[in-house]
Amino acid sequence: MRFIYDLHQSMITHNVILIYEGDFTQETTKSILTMAERNLESSGEESGIKKRIFNVMVEALQNIVKHSDEVEQQDKSKSHAAIFLIGNEQSRYSIMSGNPVRKENIPTLKTALERINSLDKDGLKELYKEIIKNTTLSEKGGAGLGFVDMARKSGEKLEWDFVDVSDELSFFCLKVNIARIKEAVALA
Amino acid sequence: MEILNIEGAEDTPKIILDRTNGIFEISGRSLPEDSAEFYKPVLEWLKSYSGKSNDSTDFVFKLEYFNTASSKLILDVLSSLESIGGTTIQWYHHEDDEDMQEAGQEFSELVEIPFEFKTY
What ranges in chain A are assigned the alpha helix state H? Predict the structure, then answer.
């Protein structure tokens, strides 16, 4: 039973205000959004910051829904379960997610993330316009704009890592920060 | 022409397309699970409207939030409107929502239709 206390302490240490682990669907996405909105409402956070958090949450959650599906078709084991967290530190919020990805998909993801992190505000705007003009929706309904949008709303670099899980799978960890003070975003 | 009337939900916008009364409006939140499927009736409606459109079409977007998959479909809706003469886009944003205003600006740079920006 000790792990319950340990988990509780770990959440406090890492300033985690919301955590969800398991299968992700559109229904869980909606529930998590409602919960987070209530949480932010009661914290009296500024509306611009709240909208950015909401924005990044939707993209992160819908990314998980798509990725989990992909792995599930190939592998019926529990390895497709993902995690979603929100951190609330003094100066910023962090939207964090983790989900398994097949190793053959890592190079594409890395290239996209590295490109996004190499761009400034105007570069991201141009990339957004380039993608929206030229892509068609994927089979999974993605427009390929999720990471770009997250980076634009964050105003900071995306933090990411791939943790080795098995021969076929890695665990893709993503952290998107949103500064609590609007001026800090403008200066970034 | 049939009126297209879709009730809004927590993850889908309210849509009214009414040729007779000259009401064309998409409002609320748009983050459907399958955005292509959701916007399909809108694009089909516009396709048949383009052959018998009113002299002027004031198309209202009053969105509180939309996800990136929806943004692609919003661009498809705007592209359909491009070929309809007399179309003006009324892009509404909440007065303290600069991001939504900027999103409208970006759409206006992607299509050849006049945009009017308004706050609510």
Answer: 2-13, 26-43, 47-74, 106-117, 121-134, 146-154, 182-187
Nearest by CB: A132 against B71, B94, B97: B71
Tell me the CA end-to-end span of chain A in Å, nearest whole number: 44
Instruction: Give tens-digit pLDDT for B7-30.
Output: 999 999 999 999 999 999 999 999
Question: Mind listing the pLDDT tens digit for each residue in B39-54?
Answer: 999 999 999 999 999 9
Closest partner residue to B67 (CB to CB) among A30, A59, A129 is: A59
Which domains does chain A show, CATH number per domain? 2-187 (3.30.565.10)
Domain B4-119, what fold? Transcription Regulator spoIIAA (3.30.750)
Structure tokens at B83: 């070929």
Strands A92-102 and A159-164: unpaired
Do the Cβ atoms of A131 and A144 come closer than 8 Å? Answer: yes
Q: Give the residue from A132, A155, A126, A154 showing the smallest Cα distance to A145.
A: A132
A168 vs chain B: nearest CA distance in angstroms?
28
Q: Dihedral through CA A82, CA A179, CA A129, CA A30, nearest 10?
A: 40
Which residues from A are below 8 Å from B when comparing CB atoms?
26, 30, 34, 47-48, 51-52, 54-55, 58-59, 62, 65, 125, 128-129, 132-133, 135, 137, 141-143, 145-146, 148-149, 153
Write down the domain spans for chain B: 4-119
ipTM of the complex: 0.91
Q: Which residue of B lies nearest to A65 if distances are taken between CA atoms?
A: B33
